[in-house]
Structures are given as structure tokens and as C-alpha cells.
Amino acid sequence: MRLSRLLASLAMAAFTASSAHAGPVRADHPLLGTWKLAVPDTKCVETYRYRADGTSIVTSADEVAETEFELADQPSEKGFYKWVDKLTKDNGKKDCSGQVTEVGHTSTFYISMHSSGDMFVMCEAEDLKACMGPFIRVKGSAI
């Protein structure tokens, strides 16, 4: 998949959340917190705030979105956390890829955390062949 299509797909996924069974995530889950992504080939930066109640707030260019997500408690044998995300609210404005994401859009991706806990990549499968990132932890940010 070309990077531009992956970027658009990931941007849409980032503004989505999991199935209707989204719920709390353990308080010490490594994905919780605030993350920044410098979108490749642009000057645009996206911000993701993942909360322990299974919701997130994402800002991307002019878009502000809220999501619900399901996240594996532990990584798989391959080292990836399965992440299912569903968009629940959106202000209807364009994101960093120039797209407007529809409320209700659901996506599944796989998260590979860096051993530092301060970076991760989001991938289409449990491998590093088609990934976006790195997402960089913003320290000291309230979620």
C-alpha cells in the first residue's frame, strides 16, 4: 500500500474507536497518555489523547474528533497490541490528510511499542511492513 493511502487510512482510523463494547483500559497500559505524530511530507502535527475509560480525543489540522477504542491488555506473541477504534464525534472539518472522517468509522490496527515506552508505530498487520509513526509521547500532559 502506498504511504499516502496508508496515511489516509490511518488518519481515518485515528479518528475512530472500537466496537460498541469499548471500555476501560488498565490504568498502567503503555498506550495511555498524550502522543504527537508529525505527519510525513507535511507540516501538520496530530495529537492523540488516550484515556483509561477507553476514549480518546484527536486533533488533526482543523479536525477535532472523539473516539472509543478497545485495546489488548497485553501484546500478542508477535509483540503487537490489537487496537480497534471507532469515531463517535467529529467537528466535520478536514484532517492533516485533507479528509473529513465520518462518524461511526471503525478501524483495526496493531500497535508496536518501543522499549522506552515513549514511542510507538501503528501498523496494518502484526508486522512492520505497513506502519505509521513514530508517535511520540508528550510528557506531563493531563489526559
Instruction: Tell me, briefly, the overall form.
Output: globular
Number of strands: 8
Structural class, by secondary structure, is mainly beta
The strand order across the widest sheet is: 1-2-3-4-5-6-7-8
In the CATH hierarchy, the third-tier topology is known as: Lipocalin
Helix-strand topology string? HEEEEEEEE
The CATH class, by name, is: Mainly Beta
Helix content: under 10%
N-to-C CA distance: 33 Å
Report the sheet with the most strands, covering strand number, pairing sense and barrel closure: 8 strands, antiparallel, barrel
Over all CA atoms, what is the radius of gyration? Answer: 14 Å
Strand residue content:
35-45%
Overall pLDDT? 85
Query: What is the helix tally?
Result: 1
Task: Summarize the structure in words.
The protein is mostly beta strands and 143 residues long. The chain has a single domain, classed as Lipocalin, CATH 2.40.128. It is built from one helix and eight strands; from the N terminus they run αββββββββ. The longest helix has 12 residues, at 3-14. The termini are far apart. Residues 1-21 have low confidence and may be disordered.
